[in-house]
């Protein structure tokens, strides 16, 4: 039987990589909020100017921004979940 687990100290620079990944997640969340604000403004302009194409693009942008925020926020949990599923196979 082979038992291999992730090693957090096996390679030099792992801690710095964790810091970088955390910073990238933060940037992703900040950009998601910015995209949500811009898309909501576009949606509002489209709805108030009777422009259904612009309103539709704004709605799509809101959904994409929310999806991006969900993925950024849940990335660690998703990876851990699938890691545990893979370990049970």
Automatic annotation (TrEMBL):
InterPro entries: DUF6112. Pfam families: DUF6112. Keywords: Membrane, Transmembrane, Transmembrane helix. The chain crosses the membrane at residues 20-48, 60-83. This is Integral membrane protein.
């Amino acid at each position: 039987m082979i038992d291999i687990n992730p090693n957090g100290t096996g390679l030099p620079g792992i801690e710095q990589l964790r810091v970088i990944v955390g910073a990238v997640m933060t940037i992703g969340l900040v950009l998601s909020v910015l995209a949500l604000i811009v898309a909501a403004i576009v949606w509002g302009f489209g709805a108030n100017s009777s422009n259904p194409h612009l309103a539709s693009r704004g709605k799509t942008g809101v959904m994409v921004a929310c999806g991006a925020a969900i993925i950024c926020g849940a990335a660690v949990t998703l990876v851990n979940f699938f890691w545990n599923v893979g370990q049970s196979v």
